[in-house]
Amino acid sequence: MLGDEYGSLVVVATVATLVIVAASWILRHSPIIINAVFAVVISIAIFAFSSLVNRSIPETFELLFRMVIGPQDSWNRVYMVAFWLANVAISVIFCAYVSSIGRSSTVHRKFFHLTVSLIYISGILLDPLFSWLCAWLWLCIFTLVELLRYLNVPPWGGVLNEHLLIFKDAQDSELLLTPIYLLVGIFLPLMVSCWDVGSFQPTLAIFAGVAAVGVGDSMAAIVGSKFGVTKWKGSKKSLEGSIAMLFSMLVFLLTTNLFIKDSSSTISIIIASLVATLAEAFINSMDNFILPLVTYLIL
C-alpha cells in the first residue's frame, strides 16, 4: 500500500477541501468570512496531519519539506520539481500574455494540455508515488481556487476572474471546471492505479490521459479549428479534426507501447483510439474526463 505519510496527507487534504467547500457554500452570501473558514480549516488540517504522523508541528513542516525534495541521497525529485515549477511559471506567464491581448483561441487553451502532459510524463518516469500524491493535492488546490473565483471571495476573486475567465471554454457554465477535468483526466490512470509502490510498473493504460487529452483532443481541436470543413451530423466537431485525433493517438500509443515492459495489444490500441475519437466527436461536455476514462478502460 501507499506510504502512510502520503496516504494520510491525501486523506486530510481531501477532507479539509470538502469541509471548506461545504462551509463556503453555506456562507456564500458573506464571502469575506470565507477567508476565516480557509484559515481555520487549514490550521485544523495541519494539526490533524501532525497527529496522524505522530510529529510536532515543526517536525510536520520539516516532513512536508522532505516530501518535496525527496531522499537525501538522490536529486531526482529536486530536478523533477524544478521542471514542474518551470512549467507552472511558463503557464502563468502565458496566462498573463493571453489576458493582455484580451482573447483566447483554441491553440491558447490547448497550451495547458501540453504543460500538464509534460508534468505527468516526467512524474511517471521519475517518481510515480510522489506524482500520485501531487495529483490529489493539485486537485484540492484547483478546487479551492475555483471556489474563491466563483464566490468572488476578496481579495482573490477579482484577480482570479480577471485572469482565468478569458480561458472559459464553451463547455463551461458559471463554474470554470475545464481545468479540473483536464487535471483529473490526465492523472486519473495514476490516481487509480498506483497502489502497490514496490511493484508499480508503468503500463500503456497509465498514459491514457496523455494520449486522449494531451495529444488526441488537442490535435482534434487545433486541426478542426484551422482546417475543419466537413462536420459530423448532429455535432459541431469536424471529420478533419477527428482524423487528426485518431492518427495522433495511434502514433503516440504505438510508439509508447514499444517502451512498455508489459505492452498492450495492437488491436486494443486501435479500438481505444477509435472509441475515444468517436466519443470526442459527439460529447459536448466533460470530454477532458470522459475520454481518458474510456481509453484507460479499453487499454
TrEMBL record:
Main localization, broad class = endoplasmic reticulum
Give the UniProt entry's GO cellular component terms. Answer: endoplasmic reticulum membrane
Report membrane topology.
Multi-pass membrane protein
Its Enzyme Commission number? 2.7.1.108
Keyword vocabulary terms for this entry: Endoplasmic reticulum, Kinase, Membrane, Transferase, Transmembrane, Transmembrane helix
Q: Which InterPro entries match?
A: Polypren_kinase (IPR032974)
Give the transmembrane ranges: 6-27, 34-57, 77-99, 174-192, 204-229, 241-260, 266-283
- Which EC class is the enzyme in? transferase
Q: Where is this protein found?
A: Endoplasmic reticulum membrane
Any one GO molecular function term: dolichol kinase activity
- PANTHER family for the chain: DOLICHOL KINASE, TRANSMEMBRANE PROTEIN 15-RELATED
Q: What is the similarity comment for this entry?
A: Belongs to the polyprenol kinase family.
Designated name of the protein:
dolichol kinase
Q: Which organism encodes this protein? A: Caenorhabditis elegans
